[in-house]
Specification:
This protein is mainly alpha-helical and about 45 residues long. The protein contains 1 helix and 2 strands; from the N terminus they run αββ. The chain is about 45% helix and about 10% strand. The protein has a two-stranded antiparallel sheet.
């Protein structure tokens, strides 16, 4: 029973943290690559 509970809590934390990591920051500035000129939004860092 304890193993099932631990597995469920771990899965919920994994899904929650993955969802936070994939969200982009609002109002993020675009960065232009000096080599090719491609513009992209850098990944969000921090909470």
């Amino acid at each position: 029973m304890k193993a099932v509970f631990t597995l469920i809590v771990t899965a919920l934390l994994f899904v929650g943290l993955t969802g936070c990591a994939t969200t982009s920051a609002t109002g993020a500035t675009k960065v232009k690559c000096p080599a090719c000129g491609h513009e992209f939004t850098p990944p969000a860092v921090g909470p």
